[in-house]
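ENTRY TYPE: paired fold submission
RECORD: A
CONTENT: sequence, then structure tokens
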Amino acid sequence: MFDENRFQEVLSTVGNDGMTLLLSMLIAELSEAPLKIGNLVYCGAVLSARKEAHSLKGAAEAVGAFDLAGSALVLEQQLSNERDAIPSFRTLAAVAIQTRREAEDRLIALRSH
């Protein structure tokens, strides 16, 4: 789920404390963003859903969670083109669960060093 080269690059730049903060922020966002985006999509609030997907994409890219970033980008594009976004949302939700698990594992590893 994480690109190891990007993760290590960011880690070397921000250090353990900085990466701990970034991962904690991503985990917090992953606790809320998929449900929020899903509700917005369901309610037809396309612009708000697109903004949330864009924000999630940026947070994911920052730490090298490129699968999540890619899923968020696809959803964002489909919402921009007024296409049925439900399948892309489902993919995003599944990737978000996997990414959160890996982020939590990485956070535990960082804290143990």
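RECORD: B
CONTENT: sequence, then structure tokens
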Amino acid sequence: MKRFILYSSLLAIVGSAIVTTPAQAIPAIFRRTTVPLNLPVGNGVPRVIHAVIVPAGPRVINYSVTTTNFAAGEFVRCGLRANGNFLEQHSTVVGGGPSAANVATISGVWFTNFNAPYTLTLVCSHDGASASVPFLEPYAELAVF
């Protein structure tokens, strides 16, 4: 009797493993710039760095942008928008003299779970209107998993 129970249990385990269908693969999206990008002149005017259509479902989003400014300090802000609405935003001050950083990297990670496809954009802007506008180094990246 014990052999029968053991055999039945093993058959059930192996059988369920065989009939179980694998989870559907989630398509990954990756974008990277290859040239420097100037931020718009003007206070808070956003520049779209990347725009992608993301399928419905759970997604982890990661981005990284390096900004440079050799003039007076400026706040630079980068963030994610879904269909035009901000999901999140990070900021840094870049430039401002010999004791300040002229280069800084802004990065973020976000989780979404939309029930319909949506347009995801990575946008950056700066706060001031100084003589020298901050720019973005090549290789600003956006990854969606």
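NOTES ON RECORD B: Confidence is low (pLDDT under 50) at residues 1-22. The chain is about 10% helix and 50% strand.
STATUS: closed
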